[in-house]
Amino acid sequence: MTYPAFSVCVYCGSRPGTNPQFTEVAKAVGQWIGERGGQLVYGGGRSGLMGVVAEATRQAGGRVVGIIPQALVDKELANQACDELHIVKNMHERKAMMAERSDAFVALPGGIGTFEELFEVWTWRQLGYHDKPIGLINVDGYYDTMLQFLQSCVGSGLMGEWQLGLIESSSDAPALLQNLVQNSGTRLETPSLRSVI
């Protein structure tokens, strides 16, 4: 087995959304990972943006690792084309395995599941459970209002500026991915996340 140059966890919607730019960026992210000999770690579905990023990675020559709970195998249409498809018991196990298998994390547009995964891995970073970089691809201003709200949390004294600084946000997907992968090379080794969360 040839080991990938790096491994990026992508959180994104199981729906395509109404903006065609969401699909375009999902394709671009998968192509970027695959063309550089990388590995995609994601939620294991073949619907929506999840399926787009996985297929684009595979078509560009990258490895695809899907991790999906049994309860979502039918709902999200588990992607049998993955190089590795792990069917796990629950969301807790899914998120821990995704985090362990990744060098960096990035969120594309998505719904409540994407938000929850992003916020949890961000919380784990602020608590010191890992020191892997986290990015937010702000496609066509999708996350503008969320970022404004988070800045207002800082202004209200309920969050520190340093916590907000643990996430890098950009509309430039290739540049953001390059930064995340480069920064992941300096991270400290961390214990099994399943042993600490």
Automatic annotation (TrEMBL):
It comes from Comamonas guangdongensis. Its EC number is 3.2.2.n1. Gene3D superfamilies: 3.40.50.450. This is Cytokinin riboside 5'-monophosphate phosphoribohydrolase. It is an enzyme of class 3 (hydrolase). Keywords: Cytokinin biosynthesis, Hydrolase. Belongs to the LOG family. The keyword Kinase does not apply. InterPro entries: LOG, LOG_fam. It catalyses: AMP + H2O = D-ribose 5-phosphate + adenine.
